[in-house]
Amino acid sequence: MKYSEEISNKLNELLIKNYDAEKGYLNAIENVDSDKLKMYFKRRASERSEFAKELRTEILQYGEIPEDSGSFKGTMHRNWTSLKATFSSNNEEMVLEEAINGEEASLEEYNELLKERNMPPSIDSLLLKHKTAIQSAINTEKVHEELVS
């Protein structure tokens, strides 16, 4: 496998995760009543959409084809979250818990990729920027969770 294809494959994996995260946040909006949480989730979805655009651009710069949708696993998780929210006594807490779990999984993916030493500095910088924003989202979601529990 050539170098550009290897990098693009790894970035495509992150791209799919970002599509899933964006859709997850849009789904979360439908499962909470608080206008503040709705706005927060909308901002997170927009941020993940921007991450996806940035990753797509990087993949295209390497002459490869970016993925154009999320994963089946992500779709199943969103359906499960919606079902759980339907039967939960505290939708907002449950939705925030799921958001935290999803972001922590994303953070792990970014950390794994950042451990690799074969990435160009521009990609390392982009991944570090995304990772920092994801960590910030986790911290904020934990505060929101404390407030609604």
TrEMBL record:
Pfam family, one: DUF2383
DUF2383 domain: residues covered: 7-116
Domain of life: Bacteria
Protein name: PA2169 family four-helix-bundle protein
